[in-house]
Amino acid sequence: MEATYRLNKSHVNIEDGKRRYMPGLDGIRALAVLVVVAYHFGWRGASGGLLGVNVFFVLSGYLIMDLLVEEYRSKGRIDLKRFWFRRARRLLPALLLMLLVVSVILFISDSSRFVSIQGDIWAAIMYMSNWYFIYHDVSYFESFGPASPLGHLWSLAVEEQFYLLLPLLLFGIIRFTNPTCGKLALYLLIGAAVSFGTMVLLYDPNTDPSRVYYGTDTRAFGFLIGAALALAWPSRILATPLSRKGTVALDVVGAMGGAIVAYMIVFTGEYDEWLYRGGMVVLSVAAALVIAAAVSPFTTVSKLLAWKPLRWVGQRSYGIYLLHYPIIVLTAPANPNMKAGFFLQLVLLVVMIWLAALSYKFVESPFIESSTLIEGWKRSKIELRKRVNQTAFIRRRRLSVLLSIGMIVLLCVSCAQRESETTGASSKEVKQEMIQGETTDKLKEEPKEEPELHELLIQSQDVQTPSLLSDGVTAIGDSVLLGVAPELEKLVPGIIIDAKVSRQMKDALAIVQQLESENRLGKCVIVELGTNGPFTSDTLTNLLDTLGAERQIILINTRVPRNWQDKVNQELSRAGEERSNVKVIDWYSYSANQSGWLTKDGIHLQPEGAKAYASLVAETISN
User: Fold this and answer.
1) Predicted TM-score (pTM) of this structure
2) With b meaning 16 or more CB within 10 Å and e meaning fewer, what string describes 165-200?
């Protein structure tokens, strides 16, 4: 196919003139990137901050379609080579610099970790991070061990794939159907519906949602909704004032969209089922309403979003997004049970914005203003040399230099403190550290259990007959229960313990049915699950219904320094409140401020912690 294609101009009814700057959109960029940063910091009130990426997708769809239409309007054709070169010129330099800096830091401070992210680096360069993570089963939400500092690049990969595919899609549609703008927008919305349908079909509430979260096929609806908006509401026709009623109506629409976006960012979470069954589409439509109001310079919404500090941050939002996640990951405490303090997070926020400003000044802008990459490189060097040679600049930047040095030291020290465990996408699963009565000096060693330890079924010799087994106590759990098993067996003679590494709540129903068929399911059933990921209310309800109201059921909540901890504990607590035969052991509260009970992962137990855990369970059974 040729690098350019011609369209029928009559289908794009836009007046002549240059493409105008829309400051309100920079305000949207600023707010979107800040809520993403807040989400990765784990701040309260930003549990849905990951939806900021959806806002970026809708905004990108709008701007790219608007740009393509504007290029056709002014030239009568769209130059694909030039379009793709502009995208590469805008995105690649800062990305490559970030990858280089992260690689150097890890190579110096943690070589094994550097090796583990080699695949992540190449996937990022090829803009295929999302599919690389899908292929290697790398979860965006559930991970043990240090996260990859490049985990956020999946969204840039999706965007770049969209930049590649949208012009080709338009070429195909216009070449074979020659549609009006209205029909073209309709086709895009049909594509968005197909994308959303794919998300609904692939989403399984009992498994990790990373596949539908990463997929280009399941996230395309955001871009397509934005692109359809650009056809129905092109920026150029909004350069002229609307009627008073029209402006007010647009403000109302924008405010409604903003309220929906804000509500979802504050009150939704990554594991909410409805998010993948319509919530993200609702968010995308709401974002489109805000964009529709923001592109008109005469609306109150646009004027608020064009506030100068917001514009400044928005213009540097790409650099902030690129840098924020490596900074957060590489400065995270080595102990996952600990979090960086709020003051330190504010300092990191200032640092990442400052570094993004430097990137914008010395890396991004020179390339944006150049016609070739070589010219951009020369401009960047000239600008940097000019600034460095100014003594006033040096005086103003002394504090900044000290901050940079301190930041690098902090990164290196943080990385050096980490255990050399692989975290990149090349690793399909993370091995969990199992502790069973070992001393502190042996904690760094791999446990030397028999293979049966990974699927343990402990049955006390005190229990001899099936009748006693059916009247006894059965415990079902994951690696935490596996570690506690010897202590629990001492305190509860005859207990049957079925525990397995990496087990999740979705596995429990089949285990219960098997134990019951083998007459091993006691009248008292203990369930310790939720360490390895969240579960839905329906999953827990089905399990409890299967166990029946005649059994006494003990649910043990979890202490796991991961973002699903609170959701798991809330579901367990709700079940205890709703069912009279269900008792919830609050291990989370009981183990608070007892760091000596926990191993370095903040999840599994030291010998002292195992004894405390077993005693708490035994006491609950006796009561």
Assistant:
1) 0.79
2) ebbebbbebbeeeebebeebbebbbebbeebbebbe
C-alpha atoms less than 13 angstroms from C-alpha of 383 in its C-beta half-sphere: 18
Which residue intervals of 389-532 are DSSP H helices? 391-396, 398-417, 466-471, 479-491, 508-517
**H helix and E strand count, the chain:** 28, 8
DSSP codes joined into one string, 289-317:
HHHHHHTSTTSHHHHHHT-HHHHHHHHTH
Q: Could you tell me which CATH number the domain at 440-622 has?
A: 3.40.50.1110
Distance CA 296, CA 302 (A): 7
From 307, 363, 533, select the one nearest 432 (Cα to Cα). Answer: 533
Residues 340 and 333 sit within 8 Å (Cβ to Cβ): yes
> Which pair of tokens denotes residue 169?
């899609």
Render pLDDT for 27-69 as a digit per residue (tens, 0 to 9).
Answer: 999 999 999 999 999 898 999 999 999 999 999 999 999 998 8
On whether the CB atoms of residues 53 and 155 are closer than 8 A, the answer is yes
d(CA 554, CA 584): 6
- How far CA 241 is from CA of 85, 107, 290, 296, 299, in Å, comes to 35, 56, 18, 8, 9
- Separation CA 357–CA 382 (nearest Å): 17
pLDDT confidence of 307, banded at 50, 70, 90? very high
Q: Which residues are catalytic?
A: 479, 601, 604
Residue with the bigger pLDDT between 561 and 336: it is: 561
Of 178, 188, 195, 130, nearest to 156 by C-alpha is 130
User: Tokens for 602?
Assistant: 């903040």
Task: Kindly report, residue by residue over 98-147, the tens digit of the pLDDT.
Answer: 999 999 999 999 889 999 999 999 999 999 999 999 999 998 987 666 78
**∠540-541-547 over CA atoms, to 5°?**
90
Residues in the chain: 623
Cα–Cα–Cα angle for 457, 461, 463, nearest 5°? 95
Instruction: Give the domain ranges of the chain.
Output: 20-324+342-417, 440-622
The residue behind tokens 């912690």 is 609
Nearest to 25 by CA among 239, 217, 247, 305: 305
- Reference 564, options 588, 596, 547; nearest CA is 588
Separation in Å, CA 536 to CA 76, 542, 543: 53, 10, 11
